[in-house]
Amino acid sequence: MNLDGYAEKCFILLIKMTLFQIRDCNIMYIPGKAFEGFLNLDSFTLEHGTIDDVEPNAMSGLDVKPARADLHKIPRKYGRFEMRYSRFVNKVIPPGLLYSWKYLKHAAVVV
User: Which of 35, 36, 28 is nearest to 4 (CA)?
Assistant: First the structure.
């Protein structure tokens, strides 16, 4: 998966999505504001795979927060970011990657 060359908000058509997962992907590059198009996201998960390069502002404009009760039928609230068994090739999470998430309730990084 290579998001290089995509404009900001490359997921703009997914505004009603509440859960987003990337699984078993080798991501070469994530540009700045790549995920800004999500409006009602309450769970963002990266699972397995690798991330070669990511801009520090890749998550800018994305806010992961618990969903409102009227957006789902089963009462559950996540508001979480999870990175499970994924690794950054340079072994460092870019500084500031999660700074813009003011409503984030839970974060887990499992290597």
Answer: 28
Task: Determine phi and psi for 70, rounding to 5 degrees.
Answer: -80, -5
Cβ-based neighbour number of residue 79 at 10 Å: 19
CA atoms within 13 A on the CB side of 22: 17
- Reading the block at residue 37, the tokens are 């198009």
Three-state DSSP at 69 gives helix
Tokens 């699972």 appear where?
A: 47
| H or E segment to which residue 106 belongs | strand 106-110
Is the pTM here over 0.85, yes or no? no
CB under 8 Å to 41, separation ≥6 — which residues?
17, 18, 19, 20, 35, 62, 63, 64, 65
Mean pLDDT over 19-31 rounds to: 87
